[in-house]
Design brief:
Layout lengths: L4 E6 L5 H12 L18 E3 L7 H9 L6 E4 L15 H10 L4 E7 L10 H20 L2 E6 L2 E6 L20 E3 L22 H11 L11 H11 L10 E7 L13 H10 L3 H6 L5 E6 L14 H20 L4 E6 L4 H12 L21 H22 L3 H9 L1 H15 L4 E2 L3 H13 L7 E2 L7 H10 L15 H19 L9
Parallel strand pairs: 1-4, 1-5, 2-3, 3-4, 7-9, 8-9, 8-10, 10-11, 11-12
Antiparallel strand pairs: 5-6
Helix pairs in contact: 2-3, 3-4, 5-6, 6-16, 9-12, 9-13, 10-11, 10-12, 10-14, 11-12, 12-13, 12-14, 13-14, 14-15
């Protein structure tokens, strides 16, 4: 949801309360879970109701006492108007409380103009007060929607609008943001409801395919599946180009032989921050914001666990919150990248365990020096490390996702997995193009099978780990560019083509019916 506060208006029987509840049931994730006041409320939502008659001052106080991790639903704003005249300025006070409310907030109110005319002086006074309240709230909330016969008509801040307080185009990639390292002490979100993650709209996907057949002599060829994917994710038959793209680049090294021959992640990170790397230069023209995610160094996987078992859940939660934050800030498409030394080796080990009948050594790409020469000695050291790690941990892992992360994956892959799960919970696709993202998608699928439906793989780049993971995940690339630009950069290189295809699919004239 690109909004923090939403006002839902409607006439008698228009379905405004049902719309508000459906929006919250769809978008509120377990990370924000609160014990509901009413068992019928959507999970993670607290419904506010007036007590002792109630008034706008009581509502303002409850809003001011809310917490940032809460989600509040106020149904029937007219219930907060007592059968007497409110003090002067009550509507303005309530509007100020809504504007400053720390929690995510949904307000449901009758639209006075769609109600029957009041028959008494007292009712006329209440109608005037409610009208003033609605106008004051509409000024301060992020989004306003009018429900007519059950259909939403967005009046402010609806789908397609820019995130509140920001531009529709993100911060240029030449000035990426570096986040703090993951803290094992941070409270993890509730990840117990992962089996209930949503899936893309299959009907919208089929409708998009039918729409493409009505473009006459025009064909979008290999891009047609990507357009269908976007339709399912956006839940519309004719999808629009993605509005805001954020690139999450994981920066976490792996100790030991996993990083044999690696040139050093510090140099690559420095290039990214300076805006000179391929990823930075591809992100800047499209206005994609690049966010460097620093995580702890993983232990040598050939000797023991890559991370402590007790750190797995908080690190998953860290990735979950990164995805949730990006969506809250208006992003509708995420790209996953990675820079850490040895990360591809760890990804190969994870894939070897989670992809049946896979030879670990066959998942490792050739190691190249900074001069572009093949380093066979480093490749063999990595092969030995993966072989030993898989043999050491195979009996312990039993393909359990969290155990695989602890034994083989490490903090960067755990964070990546959390990002994929958090994005899936918010119906937000993640574009993958490298081994870390592909291996994390396998772990995410192990924890929540539906999560794979929110992964988009435009090109596997010929990397053996990505090719094998894609086979298991059922992801079919629609391009074969064979680029070697670094994880995340290939995805960015393909996005302008996808955006152009989405724009064409939505604007080209269509024929009356599909050709026979």
């Amino acid at each position: 949801m690109p909004w923090h506060s939403l006002l839902v208006l409607g006439g008698i029987g228009s379905g405004q309360t049902g719309f508000a509840e459906s929006v919250l049931a769809e978008h509120v994730a377990p990370a924000a879970q609160i014990e509901p006041a009413d068992p019928a409320d959507p999970v993670g939502v607290r419904r506010l109701a007036p007590t002792g008659g109630g008034d706008l001052a009581q509502l303002a106080r409850l809003l001011s006492e809310s917490k940032p991790d809460q989600t509040l639903l106020v149904t029937g704003l007219d219930d907060w108007l007592p059968p007497r005249t409110e003090p002067a300025g009550a509507a303005a006070t309530a509007a100020a409380a809504v504007r400053d409310c720390p929690a995510r907030l949904v307000l449901v109110s009758p639209e006075v103009g769609l109600s029957t005319a009041p028959s008494t002086a007292a009712n006329r006074t209440l109608a005037e007060l409610l009208g003033s309240l609605n106008r004051a709230l509409a000024e301060v909330v992020d989004a306003v929607v009018l429900i007519v016969a059950g259909q939403p008509v967005w009046l402010k801040g609806g789908p397609g609008a820019a995130a509140p307080g920001g531009s529709a185009r993100a911060v240029p990639a030449t000035d990426p943001v570096t986040t703090a390292a993951a803290s094992p002490e941070a409270a993890a979100p509730d990840l117990t409801r992962l089996k209930a993650l949503p899936v893309p709209d299959e009907e919208a996907k089929l409708s998009a395919a039918e729409h493409l057949t009505r473009l006459g002599t025009v064909s979008l060829g290999a891009l047609a599946p990507a357009i269908g994917y976007a339709a399912g994710a956006q839940r519309v038959p004719v999808p629009a180009p993605w509005r805001q793209v954020r690139v999450l680049v994981l920066l976490g090294d792996h100790a030991g032989a996993a990083a044999a021959g690696a040139p050093g992640s510090a140099h690559a990170a420095g290039q990214l921050r300076a805006g000179t790397s391929p990823l930075a230069q591809l992100a800047a023209p499209m206005g994609a914001r690049v966010q460097i995610v620093e995580v702890a160094t993983a232990g040598p996987l050939e000797d023991g666990p890559a991370m402590a078992t007790e750190q797995v859940e908080p690190t998953l939660g860290y990735g979950w919150r990164l995805a949730q934050q990006a969506v809250d800030e208006g992003c509708d498409l995420l790209v996953l990248g990675a820079l850490g030394d040895g990360a591809d080796t760890a990804a190969a080990a994870v894939t070897a365990v989670l992809a049946p009948n896979t030879e670990p050594a066959g998942l490792l790409a050739r190691v190249r020096t900074e001069q572009g020469l093949i380093d066979d000695a480093a490749w063999m050291r990595r092969c030995a490390a993966v072989r030993d790690a898989v043999h050491r941990s195979r009996s312990a892992t039993r393909t359990a996702g969290r155990v695989v992360l602890a034994e083989l994956g490490g903090p960067d892959l755990a964070t990546a997995t959390g990002i994929l799960l958090g994005a899936a919970a918010r119906r937000t696709p993640v574009v993958l193009d490298g081994p870390v993202g592909a291996a994390a998608a396998l772990v995410a699928r192990n924890l929540a099978p539906q999560s794979r439906h929110w992964c988009l793989l435009p090109d596997h780049g010929g990397h053996p780990t990505v090719v094998r993971a894609a086979e298991v995940l059922g992801l079919t690339p629609w391009l074969d560019l064979r680029l070697a630009l670094g994880e995340g950069a290939t995805a960015l290189a393909t996005l302008p083509l996808l955006q152009a295809a989405l724009a064409l699919a939505g604007t080209l004239p269509v024929t009356a019916s599909a050709p026979s």
